């Protein structure tokens, strides 16, 4: 009888290590994940990207369990979005925007906790203009912006309120890099 195989996931933590708030050193995050039984734990940059392997297959259960792990370890709520490596590769492949010309444009991927109501997604898409465009595809938000538009415009939109679900953003380069795990070198 063969042993069950591990499943590879990336946990995307929202709102940590930003402007001195919710400081979570990535070395400590790796230790907490490992102590909780997750294997081959790696992190990439300080924004809360955690690769791990587990026999658990249910991403929603992992989001709940990891949220509890962080609450126990740090004492605060941190929304956690979990995607498998296959889901990440699909997210990159399905992007409605070409890889950005970094001299004049930027692309972000929003990882949503759940699929937003259709009317909420349509409302955000309707806010697209010449300087920025939004596409909602299930539990993924794609954002294209001209480089001269400040990223804080996204914060002012309050994406979570508009989409009625938790959202964490990653730039295109980071999103693509996450699909290369487990070959990404642990940083931070």
What name does the CATH topology of the largest domain carry?
Alpha-Beta Plaits
Number of domains: 2
Oligomer: single chain
Largest sheet: 4 strands, antiparallel
Strand content: 25-35%
Specify the CATH architecture of the largest domain.
2-Layer Sandwich
Physical arrangement of strands within the biggest beta sheet: 2-3-1-4
Return the average pLDDT rounded to an integer.
Answer: 88
Q: Can you lay out the helices and strands and say which pair or pack?
A:
Blueprint: E1 7-13, H1 26-35, E2 39-44, E3 49-54, H2 59-74, E4 80-84, H3 85-93, E5 105-112, H4 118-126, E6 132-137, E7 140-146, H5 152-157, H6 159-163, E8 167-171, H7 172-178
Antiparallel strand pairs: 1-3, 1-4, 2-3, 5-7, 5-8, 6-7
Detailed description of the structure:
By secondary structure, the protein is α+β, with helices and mostly antiparallel strands. It folds into two domains: 7-85, SP0830-like domains (Alpha-Beta Plaits, 2-Layer Sandwich), CATH 3.30.70.1280; 89-178, Alpha-Beta Plaits, CATH 3.30.70. Helices cover 33% and strands 27% of the residues. The protein has seven helices and eight strands. The chain has helices at 26-35, 59-74, 85-93, 118-126, 152-157, 159-163, 172-178, and strands at 7-13, 39-44, 49-54, 80-84, 105-112, 132-137, 140-146, 167-171. The mean pLDDT is 88.
